[in-house]
């Protein structure tokens, strides 16, 4: 055990030297200043999932760190003013761009961008006397620009939450009314036809059971499949956008989605038969009826969906 | 059916997403981590960025995927980061394209997408080219295969013939046959007819003489005769010593004289053949003007067989010969004569046959012209030596 710990520490030391050697500007950093950062990154991304990760795996991980970005951030954390100037100069445009994307207006974007630098530097002081900023969370695994965008996005979400708790805007109230309307209106039977109350109740009950079974089936999907379903159906992404998040091609995402449809149908039928006591013909008829009714009311549903998303975007903005 | 099933599930999922946007049927479906901190520890900026850039180890990525599937807040940030990174990558690609110079284009020429289609196309072109070359060579080899057997026997037969003036007709026919074998069936039939005529033992009897004359006429009429036999009048074998009727003592001297003259004539013909030894086809060039048409036909046939080089070599002087033949041929009393040397020779005359020598002014001549006025007309109109075939007999009037 001790031997492995020593071996890993040795890997960290060698990795720190390697990172400094690869950096175009190491900002006069030493191996010792980099080792804690490297150790934290390896623990977080490698050893947390696999304590017995091989030396080669750890070395490969360290060798893929962004040497320049990591050295710049560590130098900034150590209070190197030159490094700070370099950071602000190089990434001001990135931060402003991210702030504009996360803000509804230019003023809000400017405020957000300015607050980012303060968040990065840290308003509080740590025990060691250094500012407790967000810079210490950068591992060097991804690009610094991407990390800054993520920081801006998280900050924007936090700010929005604070505002949302304090004041519910008039738009939110309107949104709630729309949502309430869509919930109360049964889209599966609300196609304008006059139904027998008994039949209507029966259909609503069947629809509710199918919906419940579908929700359970989605839970049972793997993480990748569930994320794809969420990205495509719940977040409204296109296939190529969902594929980009998952790191796969659009065609692959499409094939996966087709497979997921089949799996979900099988699982829903299984739940309905085993749990609800349905027969197979009943499940088939229920699927057909629900699809038929849904197709009849899909246009107003999509319109409502669009209105919902527009409001959500405005709120998020 | 399967597609319909998928469509039904697709519609159900859309419906569920619409309802779930507010009902939150799934854990974390629309809740933020801050509302349920015990269940959700949100991903930090570094994790979100690493996930969106796809640089995480597989195990860590799977762990974060589970979280993202249930955490809408983190998922939205990742979506935004991914789209921003995608735009950045797109612009980087555009910049790279702008920077591409000659070497970049040259390298792109050997890139995988180009090679994927270029290599098969190149291979296909090469196969087609090789096939065409192979086909051409095959045709050439076919020509060679026809030429080789025809030329060598002919040459050897000519040489043999030149050594010995007396050669059997069958041997000469065999020498000629290889050329004819490659010809059409009609050519073969003509050859066979001529061969039969040649193989027939010559007799002094009038009937036999008539048969031979008929065969000679057939040969003259048929194109083949020009193609093979008529092409080689000088190759025509000398007739074997014919069993003759016992001549009278008076005629014996004349016959001796005739035989001496014939020998001299054969020697002249042999001398004429000498320069033709180099080219077998040229050696068979007609000396008889009446066979010009036959020559043309045979030439065409030979061309059809692919003997183009020899035909080409002859084509130069062919026109001159034809024009000369037109001048040196003459029709008298229904007989066609060509002028050869100092003699007028009946085109129906077969050199392989023997002739009856008749001297002008002799008793024999007078009796002949008295019996055959046609011969008289011929002798009067054509001066000098004449060889005329009359009623199956060849007369040499000198």
Number of domains of chain A: 3
| Helix amount of chain B | 55-70%
By CATH, the superfamily of the largest domain in chain A comes out as Winged helix-like DNA-binding domain superfamily/Winged helix DNA-binding domain
Radius of gyration of chain A: 26 Å
Distance between the termini of chain A: 51 Å
Query: Which architecture of the largest domain in chain A does the CATH hierarchy give at level 2?
Result: Orthogonal Bundle
Number of strands of chain B: 6
Strand content range of chain B: 5-15%
Question: What sort of overall outline of chain A do the alpha carbons produce when their principal axes are compared?
Answer: elongated
As for the CATH topology of the largest domain in chain A, it is Arc Repressor Mutant, subunit A
What is the rounded distance between the termini of chain B? 110 Å
**Describe the biggest sheet of chain A?**
none
Molecular structure report:
The complex is a heterodimer of chains A (317) and B (398). Chain A is mainly alpha-helical and 317 residues long. Chain A has three domains: 2-72, no CATH class; 91-164, no CATH class; 188-296, Winged helix-like DNA-binding domain superfamily/Winged helix DNA-binding domain (Arc Repressor Mutant, subunit A, Orthogonal Bundle), CATH 1.10.10.10. In chain A, 75% of the residues lie in helices and 0% in strands. Chain A has helices at residues 2-22, 31-47, 55-63, 67-77, 81-102, 106-121, 144-166, 170-184, 197-219, 223-234, 239-246, 250-274, 280-296, 298-316. The two termini of chain A are 51 Å apart. Residues 181-193 and 298-312 of chain A have low confidence and may be disordered. Chain B is 66% helix and 7% strand. Chain B is built from 16 helices and six strands. Chain B has helices at residues 2-23, 45-53, 58-70, 72-99, 102-109, 112-163, 169-181, 185-199, 206-221, 223-227, 249-273, 280-283, 292-304, 308-327, 363-371, 373-381; strands spanning 329-332, 335-340, 343-346, 356-358, 385-390, 393-397. Chain B has a six-stranded mixed β-sheet with strand order 1-2-3-5-6-4. The relative contact order of chain B is 0.06. At the A-B interface, helix 2, helix 5, helix 7, helix 8 and helix 9 of A face helix 1, helix 2, helix 3 and helix 4 of B.
């Amino acid at each position: 055990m001790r031997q492995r710990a020593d071996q890993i520490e040795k890997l960290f030391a060698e990795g720190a030297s390697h990172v400094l050697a690869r950096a175009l500007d190491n900002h006069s950093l030493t191996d010792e200043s980099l080792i804690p950062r490297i150790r934290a990154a390896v623990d977080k991304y490698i050893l947390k999932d696999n304590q017995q990760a091989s030396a080669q795996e750890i070395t490969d991980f360290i060798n893929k760190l962004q040497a320049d970005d990591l050295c710049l951030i560590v130098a900034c954390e150590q209070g190197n003013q030159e490094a700070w100037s370099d950071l602000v100069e190089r990434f001001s445009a990135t931060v402003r761009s991210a702030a504009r994307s996360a803000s509804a207006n230019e003023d809000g974007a400017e405020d957000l961008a300015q607050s980012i630098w303060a968040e990065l530097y840290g308003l509080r002081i740590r025990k060691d006397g250094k500012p407790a900023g967000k810079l210490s969370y950068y591992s060097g695994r991804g690009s610094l620009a991407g990390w800054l965008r993520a920081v801006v996005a998280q900050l924007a979400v936090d700010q929005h939450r604070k505002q949302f708790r304090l004041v519910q805007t008039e738009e939110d109230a309107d949104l709630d009314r729309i949502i309430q309307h869509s919930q109360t209106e049964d889209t599966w039977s609300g196609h304008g036809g006059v139904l027998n109350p008994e039949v209507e109740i029966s259909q609503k009950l069947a629809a509710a059971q199918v919906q419940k079974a579908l929700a359970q089936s989605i839970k049972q999907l793997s993480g990748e499949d569930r994320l794809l379903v969420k990205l495509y159906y719940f977040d409204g992404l296109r296939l190529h956008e969902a594929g980009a998040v998952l790191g796969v091609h659009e065609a692959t995402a499409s094939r996966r989605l087709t497979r997921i449809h089949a799996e979900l149908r099988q699982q829903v039928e299984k739940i309905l038969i085993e749990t609800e006591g349905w027969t197979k013909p009943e499940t088939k008829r229920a699927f057909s009826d629900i699809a038929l009714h849904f197709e009849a009311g899909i246009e107003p549903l999509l319109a409502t969906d669009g209105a919902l998303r527009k409001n959500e975007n405005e709120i998020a903005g | 059916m399967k597609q319909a099933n998928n469509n039904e599930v697709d519609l159900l999922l859309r419906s569920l997403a619409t309802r779930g946007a507010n009902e939150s049927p799934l854990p974390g479906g629309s809740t933020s981590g801050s509302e349920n901190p015990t269940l959700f520890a949100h991903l930090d900026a570094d994790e979100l960025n690493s996930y969106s850039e796809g640089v995480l180890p597989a195990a860590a990525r799977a762990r974060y995927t589970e979280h993202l599937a249930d955490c809408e807040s983190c998922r939205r940030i990742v979506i935004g980061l991914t789209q921003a990174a995608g735009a950045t990558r797109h612009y980087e690609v555009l910049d790279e394209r702008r920077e591409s110079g000659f070497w970049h284009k040259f390298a792109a020429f050997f890139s995988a997408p180009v090679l994927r289609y270029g290599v098969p196309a190149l291979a296909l072109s090469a196969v087609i080219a090789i096939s065409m070359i192979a086909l051409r060579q095959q045709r050439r080899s076919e020509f060679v295969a026809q030429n080789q057997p025809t030329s060598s026997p002919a040459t050897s037969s000519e040489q043999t013939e030149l050594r010995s003036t007396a050669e059997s007709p069958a041997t000469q026919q065999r020498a000629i046959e290889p050329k004819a074998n490659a010809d059409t069936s009609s050519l073969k039939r003509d050859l066979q007819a001529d061969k039969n005529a040649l193989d027939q033992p010559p007799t002094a009897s009038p009937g036999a003489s008539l048969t031979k004359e008929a065969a000679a006429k057939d040969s003259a009429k048929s194109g083949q005769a020009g193609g093979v036999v008529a092409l080689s009048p000088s190759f025509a074998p000398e007739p074997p010593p014919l069993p003759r009727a016992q001549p009278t003592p008076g005629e014996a001297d004349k016959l001796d004289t005739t035989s001496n003259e014939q020998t001299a004539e054969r020697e002249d013909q042999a001398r004429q053949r000498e320069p033709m030894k180099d080219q077998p086809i040229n050696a068979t060039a007609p000396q008889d003007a009446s066979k010009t048409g036959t020559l043309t036909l045979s030439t065409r046939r030979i061309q059809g067989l692919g003997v183009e080089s020899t035909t080409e070599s002859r084509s130069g002087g062919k026109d001159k010969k034809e024009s000369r033949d037109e001048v040196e041929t003459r029709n008298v009393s229904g007989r066609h004569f060509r002028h050869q040397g100092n003699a007028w020779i009946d085109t129906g005359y077969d050199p392989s046959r023997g002739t009856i020598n008749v001297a002008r002014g002799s008793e024999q001549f007078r009796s002949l012209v008295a019996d055959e006025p046609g011969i008289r007309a011929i002798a009067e109109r054509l001066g000098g030596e004449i060889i005329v075939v009359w009623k199956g007999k060849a007369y040499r009037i000198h």
